[in-house]
TrEMBL record:
Gene Ontology biological process terms, A to Z: bacterial-type flagellum-dependent cell motility
Recorded superkingdom: Bacteria
Protein name: Flagellar hook-basal body complex protein FliE
Keywords: Bacterial flagellum
Listed InterPro entries: FliE (IPR001624)
Record localization: Bacterial flagellum basal body
GO cellular component: bacterial-type flagellum basal body
Record family assignment: Belongs to the FliE family.
Keyword Zinc-finger: no
Entry's Gene Ontology molecular function annotations: cytoskeletal motor activity; structural molecule activity
Amino acid sequence: MPTSKISTNHFNKAVNAYNKALTNNKAIAPSKEQQQIAQPLNVLRAGDVIDVVSKQSASFSGLVSEIVAPQIKKIQEGEKKSTKVINSKEDLVEVAAAINSAGTALDIIVTVRDKFINAYQEILKMPL
C-alpha cells in the first residue's frame, strides 16, 4: 500500500474513534458527587463550550485594537523613560530595557500591519 493510503486510512480510523468516544462521552453523565467535586474547580468536560473571543474583539476593529493597544503602550513607556534619562531622573538599565521592549512592540505592530495588507491583497485577487 502506498504511504498516502496508509496515512489516510489511519487518519480515518482516528477520526472515527474520536467521534465514537465523543458520542459515548456525552451519553455518560457525571454523578452528582463528580459534579460537586468539579464545580468549585471549574473543570472542563467534553462538550463544554469555551468562549475564546472577548466582547471587545468580536468586531474586526476591536480585534486590531486588542492586539495593537498594548504594543503602543510599550512604545509610549519607552519614550517616557528616554525623556526621563535626558533629565537624569531614570536609571540607564531601565531605559535600555524599555527601549528594547518598545522596539519589539514596534516590530509586532509592523508584522501585524503587513499580515493585514497581505490578507487584503489576497482578497482582492479572489474572483467574484
